[in-house]
Structures are given as structure tokens and as C-alpha cells.
């Protein structure tokens, strides 16, 4: 209740389960009993992935595919979105048209990623495939409307705790969503509505509990990055 300035007492749960080669993550949140105030919630998982099998290698040549994410949120120097989602076509964020390495040698200005890729409106789930050529691969499927791709740009420790040694794939609602609810009664709201991608962060007495599922399926060394299609998860948000 009022932790970090957020109103309302909530009951939150993060679940982790293993099903064969699949890791199942469940994030749930509801208002505590007798709570009547509204609040916002946006839960994710911040695991760092290096699929090479050797932490002496970085992730520059890891190949990422996001076939259902044709838009990206442009951000300012503080990582805050500055305008509505923009098409990724023709930019370094285009992991939708075909799989591509996280870093290309011709992209001299590419210092890494810390950006939210937006699930297409007509896609029931967001799917990502990450592979290290000749090593391991994973397939991520989530009910969340966005995926924050972070290439550990700000890590400055000794190897393997330095920049670009790993990549995070963080399923979430879009950053800054509470300011884009399109709800004039919400404090700090903006007239720029992002629709369901923003509304899912609002938790109140009349809203469904927050519930999202992410499945991460791994393929072992020597197997291609195309792993078996997992069952489609369900969500209420």
C-alpha cells in the first residue's frame, strides 16, 4: 500500500514452472481485499540471455526475429516514449520482415537496444525467436502487448558483466502507459490514447485481475532456431 508512491494494496504473484524444454512464466496481480482505490501494474521478467554456451562471447551475432512486431516506440535520452509507435520497416528495429543479427557492422551508430517493440493489433500473441548460430535458440511467446529488447548497454563490470554480453527480452505493457490511458479521470493521463496496450496496466475494483503468461521454449545445441510451436497462452488484462 503506497509502496514507491503507488496507491492501493495489491496481491502480486510471479510463477515459474518447467515443462520439458519450456519455461512457463506467470504474472498475476489483484487488489487486496476491501481495497477500493485504482492503481497501475506492469510486471515483467528481466532475465539476461547469452545462448552461445560460452560467456567469453557477446550477443552481437545473436539473431532475433519478431514477426508480429511491425512498430517500435521511439524514446528520448531517458528512455521515455516521445511519440506514438512508428513503423520499423527500413530501420535497425526491423526484426519483423526477416531474422537479423542484433548488431550489424555497417550500423556504426548502433550502440545497442533498450526499446519496446509493439505487438501488431491483429496478433493474439507476441512471438520472438532468438538464436546464436551454431549454438542454442529460444522461442518466446507471450500474451503481453510489447517486448522490451535490452542489450545490456549500461553494464560496465568486468567480463562477463560488461556491455552486450547478454540480451534481455522483457514482455510487458508499453512503457509510460499510465500517461496514455486516454482516461481524463486518471491523474497524469494524456489525450494521446494507446488503447488496450495502455489500458491493461490499470487495476481497479471494476477491472479484471492482471494476468499474463509467457512461454520460453529452448532448442538444444545443433538444433535449428525453429522450435516446436507451443500452445497459445491465454490472458485477461
How would you characterize this protein structure?
There is one protein chain. By secondary structure, this protein is an all-beta fold. Helix content is about 0%, strand content about 30%. The strands form three sheets. The chain has a seven-stranded antiparallel sheet, with no helix packed on it. A hairpin with a 2-residue loop joins strand 1 and strand 2. Mean pLDDT is about 85; it is low at about 185-190 and about 225-235.
Low-pLDDT parts are 184-191, 224-237
User: How many strands?
Assistant: 15
Fraction of residues in β-strands:
25-35%
Total helical elements: 1
Radius of gyration, CA atoms, in whole angstroms? 18 Å
Helix content range: under 10%
Termini gap: 21 Å
Q: What order do the strands of the largest sheet run in, or round the barrel if closed? A: 1-2-15-11-10-5-8
Main beta sheet: strand number and arrangement?
A: 7 strands, antiparallel
Class computed from helices, strands and strand pairing: mainly beta
Order of helices and strands: EEEEEEEEEEEEEHEE
The pLDDT mean sits at 87
Give the overall shape.
globular
Amino acid at each position: 500500500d503506497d509502496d514507491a508512491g503507488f496507491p492501493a494494496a495489491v496481491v502480486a504473484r510471479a510463477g515459474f514452472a518447467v515443462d520439458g524444454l519450456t519455461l512457463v512464466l506467470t504474472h498475476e496481480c489483484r487488489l487486496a481485499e476491501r481495497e477500493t482505490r485504482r492503481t497501475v501494474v506492469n510486471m515483467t521478467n528481466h532475465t539476461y540471455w547469452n545462448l552461445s554456451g560460452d560467456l567469453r562471447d557477446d550477443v552481437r551475432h545473436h539473431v532475433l526475429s519478431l514477426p508480429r512486431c511491425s512498430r517500435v516506440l521511439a524514446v528520448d535520452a531517458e528512455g521515455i516514449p516521445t511519440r506514438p509507435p512508428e513503423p520499423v520497416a527500413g530501420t535497425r528495429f526491423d526484426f519483423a520482415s526477416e531474422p537479423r543479427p542484433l548488431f550489424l557492422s555497417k550500423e556504426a551508430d548502433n550502440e545497442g537496444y533498450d526499446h519496446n517493440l509493439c505487438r501488431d493489433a491483429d496478433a493474439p500473441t507476441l512471438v520472438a525467436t532468438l538464436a546464436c548460430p551454431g549454438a542454442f535458440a529460444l522461442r518466446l511467446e507471450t500474451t503481453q502487448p510489447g517486448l522490451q529488447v535490452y542489450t545490456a548497454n549500461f553494464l560496465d563490470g568486468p567480463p562477463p558483466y560488461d556491455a552486450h554480453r547478454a540480451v534481455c527480452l522483457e514482455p510487458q505493457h508499453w512503457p509510460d502507459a499510465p500517461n496514455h490511458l486516454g482516461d481524463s479521470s486518471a491523474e497524469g493521463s494524456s489525450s494521446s490514447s494507446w488503447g488496450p496496450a495502455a489500458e491493461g496496466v490499470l487495476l481497479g475494483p471494476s477491472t479484471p485481475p492482471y494476468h499474463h503468461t509467457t512461454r520460453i521454449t529452448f532448442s538444444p545445441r545443433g538444433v535449428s532456431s525453429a522450435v516446436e510451436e507451443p500452445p497459445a497462452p491465454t490472458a485477461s488484462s
